[in-house]
Amino acid sequence: MTHFLLRTTAIGLLALGASLPAVAAPLKPDLAKSSVTIVFKQMNVPVEAKFKQFTAQIDFDSAQPAAAKASVDIAIPSFDLGDPEYNKEVLKKEWFNAAQFAKASFVASSIKASAGAPAGSKYDVAGKLTIKGKTTDVSFPLSVKKEGSAQVFDGSLPIKRLTYNIGEGEWKDTSMVADEIVIKFHLVAN
Question: If pLDDT is split at 50, 70 and 90, which confidence band does 61 have?
């Protein structure tokens, strides 16, 4: 098993020789070692930015991926392009509208082992992504590996920014800022 199991057994059931099934404990993300970033092109030059604040809930057992649950909430005001003026600009209504939509979120609806991948290493994830009040169905590949006692979850989710109204008015023009964005995450959990 890839994480701790809690076994609950009632005294009365023990006397009958039966026990309750094992229940998986949620993993605890190490946010200091984890990251959520985005990569986009501005004037055809790749730019990487990060979200400094996010939370993640992960309940995952590689032996039972279909029973897994995962969600990530991102604090939009924590978006960091590396420059305070740019950071202020992208929080405005035309971009993220952080005053009205302070959070983006992803909630997994299914996690399945990828066909042909080594057991316990690659998964196909589907779920709902909400940004700026718009929710869509998304899917992406996920890799999972062990590092000491931790599990490391890595994934890349390509989206189109205009689907979520990121870049309104004059910023709908994709010649300056491309429509394609890749959300990358690296989550370390015990």
Answer: confident
**Does residue 32 carry a pLDDT above 90?**
yes
Burial class for 180, CB neighbours closer than 10 Å (0-12, 13-18, 19+): middle
Yes or no: say if 153 and 16 are a contact pair by the CB < 8 Å rule.
no
Tens-digit pLDDT profile for residues 3-27: 323 232 222 323 333 333 334 568 9
Distance, C-alpha 85 to centroid of its chain: 27
Other beta carbons less than 10 A from residue 133's beta carbon? 11
CA 43, chain centre distance (Å):
27
DSSP assignment of the chain, as one string? --S-EE----HHHHHHT--PPPEEPPB-B-TTT-EEEEEEEETTEEEEEEES-EEEEEE--TT-GGG-EEEEEEEGGGEE-SSHHHHHHHTSTTTT-TTT--EEEEEEEEEEEPTTSPTTTEEEEEEEEEETTEEEEEEEEEEEEEETTEEEEEEEEEEEGGGGT-S-GGGG-TTTEEEEEEEEEEEEE-
Contact, 119 vs 24, CB < 8 A? no
pTM (predicted TM-score): 0.84
Paired strand residues for 178: none
| R_g over Cα of the chain | 20
- What six digits make up the tokens of 21? 């099934």
Stretch 137-151: mean pLDDT = 95
